[in-house]
Design goal:
heterodimer, A: about 110 residues, mainly beta, seven-stranded mixed β-sheet, 11 strands, about 50% strand, B: mainly beta, six-stranded mixed β-sheet, four-stranded antiparallel β-sheet
Amino acid sequence: EADIYQTPRYLVIGTGKKITLECSQTMGHDKMYWYQQDPGMELHLIHYSYGVNSTEKGDLSSESTVSRIRTEHFPLTLESARPSHTSQYLCASSEPGPNQPQHFGDGTRLSIL
Amino acid sequence: AQTVTQSQPEMSVQEAETVTLSCTYDTSENNYYLFWYKQPPSRQMILVIRQEAYKQQNATENRFSVNFQKAAKSFSLKISDSQLGDTAMYFCAFWTGNQFYFGTGTSLTVIP
């Protein structure tokens, strides 16, 4: 089992609220990622980081922001949640190198009312 | 553009039988890496098998093997002696050096 943790597992919240999805890993991985996954759809990369103070946007446009102040922590924040943000969010991390697989968290299933 | 196509949204297989999940991809890169991930219901996504594009030999991990056809950009997963625990979503993915690209997944059900 990979040592990568996401909280909360499930969140139902009203429109306009500020939300932070937490992701932590204990493997010392420099690379971390956030994906958005809708049912029956592929994973879409929304943010990634190659190390502390490094953050980049992925292919899928997202209104969320991320920060990477510590190696083990990569939180994702939605300043003002909307129903269109309803989805599953997966966090992953990997070691450097081209052949290194990603280790995934359990995901956060987010529902915005 | 980098794309991954899994044309079988759902599949089923009888326990102990063999099943093959298909995956095709498109990339202009010459050096890349291919992966199959498994996501059991309500559980973490985990790596099943990986393949380096520069290697001709197909990867094998116990009951899991791939059929990698680089010219055809095809990367199918074969599961032999299917077990109930193999029931899951299976995602094909490739890594080009910048990021991973995932397919839409195939939902596999192993029938007792």
